[in-house]
Structures are given as structure tokens and as C-alpha cells.
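Extended Data, panel c. Modelled sequence:
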Amino acid sequence: MELTNTKDSEQKQRLRIADIARITGVSAGTVDRVLHNRGRVSDEKRKKIEAVIDQMDYKPNVFARSLSIKKEMRFVSLIPNFDPAGYWEYIRNGINKAQKEISDHRIIIEHHHFDQYDNRSFVVATERILSTSPDAVIFSPVFIEESVAFAEQLEQQNIPCVLVDSNVEAINSLAYYGQHSLKSGYTAAQLLFTGLPENSVVLLTRSVRPNGIGSNQAILREKGFMHYVDEHQLQQNYQIVRVDLYSNNTAKNLNKLWEVVAGNIPIAGAAIFSSKVYRLVDYLNQLKLHDIKIIGYDELPQNVTALKAGRVSYLIAQRPEMQGYLVVKDLVKHLVYKQPTHRTNYVPVDILTREIVDEYIQFNRRLNE
């Protein structure tokens, strides 16, 4: 089929489904089925329609499609409780930014929270969410077993979910946005051991819950760290000591660290696999331990202060606002525009030093205005 004068940009802008139907001699409903790949259409009609679409460079009006949605959609986010300017607040800020951009699509987002050190609070929150049958769920799988069970129930109710911060392969999520935890742990080890004197102690710490188990993210980071250690046979030249730090139990944490110090072992480096770097710095200050190369995660204000003071050597940042923003956009892409999404999306990690951290924060602030 040969079309004349069909490449004019003005014609392309005005082209509608009805125009394609008129040119091909089929109904508008048939064109719609081909465009959205649903329903049965004969090969002959499909080829005619696709030929016109190709020649006219037709682009569907996805905005008009979204305006045709009469039902209000309700997304639910489930992330840990947070302190002001904390890591999880950054993720929620990203979610809120996306919500403002999609306000014309009749979509609301409800925020729910749980105690990241109490798996029961997570289960209670998931039960409450399931009872309300939302259109989609955004959540962080801090507790692996409970998160898998939650995702299975969502799937049974045909409710899509997206993950932020950490990934669980057993969860059939629509999308995941966050760092590659194993690789970030591997990178942390590479940064820490570079230039570190041999025959010294490296302290590995992570924030754990009352049952002694760390978060999914921290576990994966430590695995990546130890993969680097094993790959380079570093245990032959360094003594690696693990110390678990408990939330809101300063006395217990100080005692654990003091036991290491009391053995007269020189600590040259330390890594913590959570955003609580500032707590480790505070403990080491109280024990009058200085000149230790420390690496941790996230540009929390307290962490940045320690970095700029020279008490922390590196912070690994992971763009939490971007994570929150992009999971919402993917849900809209899937539910409103009926477009495919990618299952696993790794955000880039940023290595922050005290020399560049101010510019990094200022630039991110401008991006999120």
C-alpha cells in the first residue's frame, strides 16, 4: 500500500485511531486491538494496519489514554519508620515527587510504615494493606521470609508490587530499584583494603535486630565484602573481627567493642553495612580510638559530618530519592500506559569523600527541587 504525503509532521500529530481505521478500511476497534496486542485480528487486517502505522510513524497519545481512566487508583508504600533527614525519608521524598507529577492521572499514594527491627510490625502493616486491596504496592523487603509471604498474597489478589532498596529474587515483583548489594559490598572492601597496613585488624560491623539478624541489604553487602576478601586471600594478612551493633543499646555495643580493644589488637580499618556509620564513629570516639579507616553507607547529615571531619574515609551513596521516584513511574507505566517495565534496575552507587560531598549534596538537592 502506497501512501502519499504521509510524512508531513503536522499530519503525524493529527493522526488518530479513526484515521488509521478509515485508511485501512477496518473498524476503530480492530485498530485498537492491534495497537494494544489484544483480541483476535486476521493476518490480512493486521498487516494493513501495521503498514499504515509504520509509514505514518504513529505514536499513541498515552496522555489521552490516562485521562480516559475513570477509576481512581490507590498505590500504597510500605517502608520503615524514619528520623528526619534519614535514609528512608529520602526514599519517601522520591515517591512524593513522582506523585506530584502524576496528579492528573487520578492516582493517590498512601504511606505506611513499620519498625525495621521488629518483623511483627511489618506483618501487621502488610495485613492492614491487604485488607484494603490497593491497586499497587511499593515496599522494601527488609525481612526476607515475611516479605516473600506478603508478595505471594499480593500476587494471589493480582496486585502488582515494586521493590526499593533491596532485592529478593523469590519475589515476583514488577520492578526493583536499588543498588547491586553484592557489588557495593565488594567495592567497599576494595576501598577499605587499598593502602591498609598488613597484619592489622579490620572491624566488620552491622546493625542487627534483637534476634541478632541483620537486614537483607546488610547481609548481601557483607557477602560481597567477604567475596573480595576470599578472592584476594586477605585473611592471610589481616585479622577480621565481626561485631554486631544493636539498635538503642549503647552500653552493650560499647562493651562489645571494648572487648576487641582490650585484647590490645590494633584496629586499622572498619566497615559498617548500614547507614548507621555515625553511631560507630561515636562509639570509637568514646573509646578514644582514632586514625581508623572507616567506610559506610549513605549521605545522612550525621554521616556527612563525620566524613568532613575526617573520621570516615568513604561513604557509599545509592540515590534513594531516585529509587522512590522511579518505582512510582514504573507502576504508572505498567498500569496506566500498559507499557513493559524492566524487572531489575540497579541504580549507580556514588563514592563520596570529604572533598566532594558538598557539591554532591547540592547537585542532588537541585535535581529534587
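The two ends are 50 Å apart (CA to CA). This feature is highlighted in the accompanying rendering.
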